[in-house]
Specification:
Layout (H helix, E strand, L loop, with lengths): L1 E6 L4 E8 L5 E6 L8 H12 L8 E5 L5 H15 L6 E4 L1 H10 L8 E11 L2 E10 L2 E12 L12 E3 L3 H8 L8 E2 L8 H13 L28
Parallel strand pairs: 1-4, 4-5, 6-9, 9-10
Antiparallel strand pairs: 1-2, 2-3, 6-7, 7-8
Amino acid sequence: MWMLSLELSTVRHSVAVGLDNDPILERSWSEPARASHNLIPMIQSALSDAGVRVDQIDRFAAGVGPGTFSGLRIAVTTLQALALPGGKPVVGFSSAAVLAYQVAQGHCTVGNTLPVTVVGDARRGQLWFARYEVGRDDLQPIVPPRIAPAGAWPSWLQPAGKLVTPDWDRLGATLAPWVPPGVDLIPEPRQPAASSVLELARLFQRHNRAYPPPVPLYLNPPVAVPGPEKGAST
């Protein structure tokens, strides 16, 4: 089964293509959150290098956030447009789960699991937290992405395992002072990658788990709120 995945939840964008358990081909690039100028050329490049046409892709998978409002929307709508002509399925994985799985692969031993907490900037003086129990071939959500005030460890989240953030540039200086004992903070930014989205899709396929739908995960409404249409009465 050929799969194609996208991860656009941060400014580090990526596309990945893979067949069954063969090595995954990935292309990544940096682009402002609201821009997608390189997206289609990168998808075309990845498909060409993998030697597969878009109509031969059997399943499409997107990272669905939390993350940038525009990036999540563009990832899902792009894959839906690519999948539509052939009626192919599109699925979605939490970008927090993708990052947790990605981080744990470098720290888990076979047969063991590791709690991984992902924290991100929810703006407006808030953070979002998500917790997963991750193994080499397993991922179980413990706490789904949830908002909490910035500046303190949430009382509802047990201190344990690894702590990682895709927003280190904004949060790094403020996170370290209040991370409790028992939590191993990774002191650098880590972004979820399309290759890890594809790996999660493979994991779900191996274990016959139901695929999550491609629904963007917005924890807050967009900052910019459209005004009334021209000519509309007030």
